[in-house]
Amino acid sequence: MDLLALGSIITLKKDSGNTKLMVVTRGAITNVNGEEGFFDYAAVIYPIGIVDNQLYFFNNEDIGKIIFKGFSDEDDKKLTSKLLSRMKNDQIMHHSVNNVEHQEDLSILLDKKERQE
């Protein structure tokens, strides 16, 4: 698995490409349903940025399209290597968007009908 660089712009599969997100962190540790774990990424809405301190969490398998790959240099490659190693070897749970009880808390990209179900 590779990780996208910070600043990468993507859309999610569930959103059908309607909302662009910009990656602002990788290996994001968060508490979901009382369990600490991580998502591959946290992002903000592009081009708006952070609103009400809200981040949107997702994993590589949730990405529908990569619109732009962010900047990556040797420092980024070293950090990415460390992150990937930690993500593989740590005893922390890898969260999935599909297993989150309140998905609307993690992503605004579900249509209104899905949110009500």
Structure write-up:
18% of the residues lie in helices and 32% in strands. It is built from two helices and six strands. It has helices at 74-89, 112-116; strands at residues 9-12, 21-32, 35-45, 56-58, 63-68, 93-94. Strands 1, 2, 3, 4, 5 and 6 form a six-stranded mixed β-sheet that branches.
* H and E string: EEEEEHEH
Low-confidence stretches: 107-117
Using only CA atoms, what is the Rg? 14 Å
Biggest beta sheet attributes:
6 strands, mixed
Mean of residue pLDDT values:
81
Q: What level of helicity do the residues show?
A: 10-25%
Shape: globular
Number of helices: 2
The structural class is alpha+beta
Number of strands: 6
Termini gap: 33 Å
* Residues in β-strands, percent: 25-35%
Into how many domains do the coordinates divide? 1
What keywords describe this structure?
117 residues; single chain; six-stranded mixed sheet; disordered C terminus; alpha+beta
Topology:
Elements: E1 9-12, E2 21-32, E3 35-45, E4 56-58, E5 63-68, H1 74-89, E6 93-94, H2 112-116
Parallel strand pairs: 3-6
Antiparallel strand pairs: 1-2, 1-5, 2-3, 3-4
